[in-house]
Amino acid sequence: MQFSQTILSLLTLWLGLTLIVAPIQALNRGAETDTRAVFSPGTATSSSKRLVAGKSLLFNLDRHGCVLPGEVLKLTGEQLMDLSKYRLVLRAEKQFIALKLLSISKQQILIQIPRDTTLKPGQQYSLVLLAAEGADVSQNTGMSLRLCPSIAKHHLLPVQEAHESGEILVLVHSGLVDQIIKEGSKLGYLLLRRHQLNSINQTLLVLGGSDRNLNKALKKLRATFADAAIDFNHHFYTSGGSPQLHAAAQMHWPEQAECSPRSTIKVSVGMLDGDIDMTHPALMAKNIKTRNFLLPSQKPDQDHATAIAVLLVGSQPDHGFQGLVPFINLKAANVVQVRGQDSVATAEAIARAMDWFIKQQVQLVNVSLTSPNVNKVTNTLFAQAINKGLIIFAAAGNDGNRQKSAYPAALPGVITITAIDARGEILASANQGDYIDFAAPGVDIWTASKTHSGQYRSGTSLAVPHAVSIAALYLSQQPGYSRDRLFETLRFNAVDLGSRGFDTRYGWGQVQVNQQMCHH
Prior knowledge:
The chain is of the alpha+beta class. It has helices at 2-9, 11-15, 24-28, 46-52, 177-186, 214-224, 247-250, 303-313, 347-360, 376-387, 460-477, 483-493; strands at residues 60-61, 72-76, 87-92, 95-98, 100-104, 108-112, 124-130, 144-146, 163-172, 190-197, 202-208, 229-238, 268-273, 288-292, 315-316, 321-322, 329-334, 336-339, 342-346, 364-367, 369-370, 391-395, 415-420, 438-441, 445-447, 455-457. It starts with a helix and ends in a 27-residue tail after the last helix.
C-alpha cells in the first residue's frame, strides 16, 4: 500500500515532461529548442529500489541495431503503467538525457530518441529509469542503446519541414480507420492519438514511428489510401513614451455610440492562437469562451493571444487599451505552445480547433499563424470551414519571402492581410505575393504585455484583428453578409496603396470603414 501511494505521488513528473528534457549545459550553449532542464543523480528511495528488485529486465525493446536521433522505439512488457511516474533517460557521462514519452499503456511504451548534441554517433548509452527526485533506480534494466556511427543530414528533415518528430497525421472517414491503423503498424507507425472531428464526420489519427522512414511511410500510406488526407504534423508559427494609438484613426474607426449593432445577435469570432490570460485587467468579465487543444505535456503561450484578444475586446482606457469590437462573442482556441524561444502550433491542434469553430458556428476566424508548408490535413479543415460559411482572415507572414507562399494565408477563399505602418508603408519583413488581399495597421501597435502593462508590437499577425474588426462591424450591421459580399465591400472601401489597383505588396490596399455605414 505504501509503495502504491509513493508511486501515485510521482505522477505529475512524467506527465509534466515537455518533449525533450536535456542537460543544462545544452541550454547554456543555445542548443535546440526542445531542451528543457537537467536531472542529476541522487539516492534511490526504498520504494524505487523495490520496483526493480529481483528483475533482470523491466521490459523488452522491440528494436535491433543502432538508433537515430528522432527515432521512435517500442518497449513491451507487463504492467508498464507502474512506470508512468518515472523518467526514462539515457546516461551520458555524468548527466542524463531524457527520452520523449509518446504514449504508455499496460503492455507498451513508445519513446523517442532526442536530437541532442550531447549524444555522439557510434556511442552506446545505458537506458536508465529515474525517480522524481532524480535517483538512479534502474541498474537492473539491462538495456543500452547505441547511436548509429554515421548520422547523415539527409536522415533528418530540413528546417522548413519542421514538424513533430516521427508523427503522421491522417484525416479519414471512420470506415477506413482500422485499415489505416493496421497498415501504419506494418510500416512501423503505431497509433498515438485519435480525435473524432464531428463537424466534418471524419477521424483524425496521429501515428508515431521513426523520423528516418517518415517520407517513405507517408508515400506508402498516401498511395494506399488516396481518399485520406495524410501529412506531417507540421509546425505553424506566430508571426517608450505614451501610446501612439494610430490604428483606429487610420481605419476611420467610428465612435461606438455612432455605430451600434443593428442585430441583437452578436457576431461570433473564432481566434486561432494561444492561451488568453483571463486575469489581465483589460479582459476581465469579457464574453470570451476558450478551449484548449494542447497536449498535457505542452506549455501554453499566453503572450501573443492576450495581445490579440485585447485588440479585439479589451477595455482598460487608463493604459490605452480599448478593443475595437467589444460587442462580439470571442471564441478562442488555444493551439500555441512555448518551445524554447519559439511559439509553435502543430497541425494536429489546428485541425481540432477548426473542427470546434465549425461546430460553434463562428462567423469570422482570426488566424495569426503561418507555415511555409502545404499541409493536407489542415488545408482540408480550412476548406471545409469555408464551404460551411466561415470567413477566415489570416496573416501574410513575416518571413520577408517573395518567392514562397505562407499557409493558411495562400489557401483559396482565405482573406490574407499584410501589415503597414502609420504612413502606409509596408512592414519590411512582410511576405509578398499574389495571395495578399488587403493591408491593415500592424506596425508599432500598442497592446497588452505579460506584465499587464503595455508594449508596442509589429507583425502581420497584429494586422489581422484590425481587418477582422472591420468585418465584424459590417456583419453587425448586415448579419446576412456572405464571404464574397464582404470581400467586395472591403475592396470597394480600401485605400489604394503601392501600384495602382492590385499589387503583390498591398493587395487591394488598406482596409477602411465606410463612413456612411453607421448613419442609419
